[in-house]
Amino acid sequence: MISYLSQRENDVEQINSICLRLFDSWCETRNVMPLAYLMHCWPMSDSGPAAIRRLGETMHELRRHHADLLDTDAFQTLCQMADLIDDLAGRPIESVKPIAVGRGRGQCG
């Protein structure tokens, strides 16, 4: 993870890393059903709340309806991702507030 990113950005980066690992694993093993679920919502179009929520809901449905297709490692990885998504849901997106030129620096909030 990159130290200068916000915690939210680090979490999003970690979620994308998890998705990439799952994608590679499921392609390699030709595990088509979980792969179809993942490709339905990833890569994310952006890292906003709606995209994160869609990923979380889709992966929850995969765990709920097709747990028999997941090995222990994939299931635990999906649970780890769910924890990160839950953390993000409670953390607002930081945004820079625009200010007039010459009046100081923008603030996050």
- State the end-to-end CA separation: 23 Å
How helical, in percent, are the residues?
A: 55-70%
Structure annotation, total helices: 4
Strand order of the biggest β-sheet: 1-2
User: Which band does the percent of strand residues land in?
Assistant: under 5%
Mean of all residue-level pLDDT scores: 84
What summary fits the major beta sheet?
A: 2 strands, antiparallel
Q: H/E order of the elements?
A: HHHHEE
Rg is 17 Å
* Unreliable residue stretches: 95-109
Structural class, judged by helices and strands? mainly alpha
Number of strands: 2
Tell me the overall shape. globular
Can you tell me the number of structural domains? 1
Please give a structural write-up.
By secondary structure, this protein is mainly α. It has one domain (7-108). It is built from 4 helices and 2 strands, in the order H-H-H-H-E-E. The chain has a two-stranded antiparallel ribbon. Helix 3 packs antiparallel against helix 4. The chain is globular. Mean pLDDT is 84; it is low at 95-109.
Which labels suit this protein?
109 residues; mainly alpha; two-stranded antiparallel ribbon; 4 helices; 2 strands; 4% strand
Explain briefly what this protein structure is.
The chain is mostly helical.
Write the layout of secondary structure elements.
Elements: H1 7-28, H2 32-41, H3 49-66, H4 72-89, E1 96-97, E2 107-108
